[in-house]
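Below is a filled-in request sheet from our internal design queue. Each sheet records the structural input a requester submitted and the sequence that came back. We keep these sheets so that new team members can see what a complete request looks like end to end.

REQUESTER: design group, bay 2
PRIORITY: normal
MODE: inverse folding
CHAIN LENGTH: 303
BACKBONE (tokenized):
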């Protein structure tokens, strides 16, 4: 790499916007310039760095060097906004713009407790959030690519440039309605019945049900699947007998006690350890959000 002592902040922001929106044309509309100007800024930055920063495909894909600069641009923008807010904190709030924090979160945390943490931070700061819903096995990649500043993830190893805080363990129970259980598991829960009984999954990235089948049978089976990418509808589909699936233990305790739901393998309850990863930067806003996320998570999950 060339000897680089200073980078053009306008070009950095242009790169970040282009990566976020996926095309030069979309970035141009957002920045109120021409697509040619977007291309020229990024090309000048590549010349300055001495490396290719983008793969010119649709959507645009950053190179490893590009990812580093996207993170830098997003971090710089956050710190600039916080500095401005601090300078005008005694002025009329109406003149202070909102800071936006992009965060990647798994569906169960988003549905269960995460919004409480966001709301608590918003009572003290002019901040809004862009929450990206993603499976816990994939949120760390969003963080690595610079698409978000923080993420709830199942990955304990820190993404480069990030800090990791353990949140706790979310315990699940594999359940079905009594009628579904009687129809599909009259001969017991085993390889033959698990291969045929329909399951409900959130989406194709949701591997919880298939992982459970593999642990119980020690085989890779391919049962029929209904995909419902909504926590509410996923939950309801299991409760109306469309298939069996894994629900958070805390959500099904009462129904199991009443006998409305039946546990497929009593006492065999898989756990998913979740972590909060966020960029290491001197942001008081990210620090406060981290505190609230930890508090909310530990009220909901096992330690």
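RETURNED SEQUENCE:
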């Amino acid at each position: 790499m060339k000897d680089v002592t200073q980078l053009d902040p306008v070009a950095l922001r242009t790169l970040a916007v282009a990566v976020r929106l996926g095309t030069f044309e979309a970035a141009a509309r957002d920045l109120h310039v021409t697509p040619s100007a977007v291309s020229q800024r990024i090309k000048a930055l590549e010349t300055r760095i001495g490396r290719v920063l983008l793969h010119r495909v649709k959507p645009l894909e950053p190179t490893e060097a590009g990812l580093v600069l996207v993170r830098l641009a997003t971090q710089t923008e956050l710190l600039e906004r916080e500095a401005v807010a601090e300078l005008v904190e005694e002025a009329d709030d109406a003149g202070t713009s909102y800071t936006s924090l992009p965060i990647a979160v798994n569906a169960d945390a988003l549905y269960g407790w995460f919004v409480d943490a966001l709301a608590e931070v918003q009572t003290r700061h002019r901040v809004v959030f862009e929450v990206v819903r993603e499976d816990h096995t994939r949120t760390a990649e969003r963080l690595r690519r610079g698409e978000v500043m923080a993420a709830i993830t199942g990955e304990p190893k820190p993404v480069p440039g990030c800090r990791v805080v353990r949140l706790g363990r979310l315990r699940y129970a594999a359940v079905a309605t009594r009628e579904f259980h009687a129809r599909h598991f009259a001969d017991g829960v085993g390889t033959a019945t698990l291969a045929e009984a329909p399951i409900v999954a959130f989406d194709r990235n949701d591997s919880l049900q298939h992982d459970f089948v593999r642990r119980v049978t020690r085989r890779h089976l391919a049962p029929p699947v209904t995909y419902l990418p909504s926590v509410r509808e996923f939950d309801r589909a299991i409760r109306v007998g469309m298939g069996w699936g894994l629900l958070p233990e805390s959500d099904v305790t009462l129904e199991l006690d009443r006998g409305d739901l039946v546990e497929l393998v009593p006492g065999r309850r898989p756990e998913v350890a979740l972590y909060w990863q966020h960029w290491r930067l001197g942001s008081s806003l990210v620090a406060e959000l981290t505190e609230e996320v930890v508090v909310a998570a530990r009220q909901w999950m096992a330690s």
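SHEET NOTES:
- The radius of gyration is 23 Å.
- The first helix runs from residue 9 to 21.
FILED BY: M.R.
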